[in-house]
User: Which sequence fits this backbone?
């Protein structure tokens, strides 16, 4: 069955659609899952909701716990991905089966407190189609925060519109926006930025943020760098244009310096100790050159990935008390 077919079968099998879909990507979170679920059930007790837990190829006991949750709670829908695809593809897979009018995403590690969900829903019901959130005194390592702030600045600059915190995944979307995100998703999808592009009435609220309850962050520095690059090159040509601009300025400066040296040679005679100056200039040029090549590579790589059109995610199975379905590919 194709991904669309899976999504359709899940949706049409519903006797009555819930109003709110909660989507949580889960990767090796056996320690927090039960706690997360009970918190969500407590906070959402008065809502008509479904809880979509997307198992992103976990290697620990996460899968068993998820099946157990689906068997004991009619609100739970478990989406099993074929392997580990990453946080954002996992959220996309969740979007593809959601039935609610509103959708809220959050992390499984309880860094985003579920108690904030009603405040997000309030904004969604108030007519905002994208609700972002800013982490009040964020509990993450210093380095992570620096990277995030750089990413926020560059994204805001390249997209024109800004949100203060693109990294926080406790977010709300209207169904229309979520569906369009799935439709538009590219190989390197970064959901908050895609949503901003589609939003007609976005808003950002402050939410609390806690330290990870247990386990480790699933983002290594390399993964983080990739995500940052995805975000930056995915939305604009600004970085490559900056490099071109830098190249132009350096070329002008280089030309001026050569003219100066030439004049000096005529007036004062040839210099002989200029060797290290030359090295310095050479290294500066080489740095810019390597960066440019890297950036061009980044764009070419993205085009390559798009052209291959491999699925972003692959759903192996959807488990819930009301649906039995299997096998689906991500969008082509
Ligand atoms: N996650 C995922 N697939 C991955 C990496 C992470 O589904 O390949 C999930 C993870 O289980 C968690 C969320 O994405 O629910 C955020 O991950 P993490 O807490 O490691 O990121 P951080 O808080 O360090 O940004
Ligand atoms: Mg986390």
Assistant:
């Amino acid at each position: 069955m194709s991904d669309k077919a899976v999504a359709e079968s899940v949706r049409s099998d519903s006797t009555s659609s819930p109003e709110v879909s909660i989507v949580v990507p889960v990767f090796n979170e056996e320690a927090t899952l039960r706690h997360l679920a009970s918190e969500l059930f407590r906070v959402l007790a008065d809502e008509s909701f479904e809880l979509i837990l997307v198992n992103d190829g976990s290697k620990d006991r996460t899968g068993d716990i998820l099946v157990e949750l689906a068997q004991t709670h009619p609100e739970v829908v478990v989406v099993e991905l074929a392997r580990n695809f990453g946080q954002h593809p996992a959220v996309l897979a969740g979007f593809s089966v959601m039935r609610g009018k509103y959708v809220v995403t959050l992390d499984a590690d309880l860094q985003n407190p579920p108690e904030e969900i009603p405040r997000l829903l309030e904004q969604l019901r108030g007519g905002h189609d994208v609700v972002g959130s800013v982490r009040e005194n964020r509990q993450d390592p210093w380095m992570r925060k620096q990277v995030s702030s750089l990413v926020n600045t560059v994204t805001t600059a390249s997209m024109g519109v800004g949100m203060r915190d693109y990294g926080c995944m406790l977010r709300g979307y209207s169904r229309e926006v979520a569906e369009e995100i799935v439709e538009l998703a590219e190989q390197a999808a970064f959901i908050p930025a895609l949503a901003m592009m589609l939003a007609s009435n976005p808003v950002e609220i402050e939410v609390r943020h806690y330290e990870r309850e247990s386990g480790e962050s699933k983002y290594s520095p390399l993964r983080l760098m990739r995500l940052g690059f995805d975000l930056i090159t995915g939305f604009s040509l600004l970085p490559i244009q900056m490099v071109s601009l830098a190249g132009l300025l350096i070329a002008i400066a280089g030309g001026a310096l050569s003219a100066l040296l030439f004049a000096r040679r005529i007036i004062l005679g040839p210099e002989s100790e200029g060797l290290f100056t030359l090295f310095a200039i050479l290294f500066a040029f080489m740095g810019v050159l390597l960066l440019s090549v890297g950036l061009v590579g980044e764009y070419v790589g993205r085009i390559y990935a798009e052209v291959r059109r491999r699925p972003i995610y692959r759903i192996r199975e959807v488990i819930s008390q009301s649906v039995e379905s299997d096998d689906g590919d991500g969008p082509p």
User: Anything to note?
Assistant: The mean pLDDT is 84.
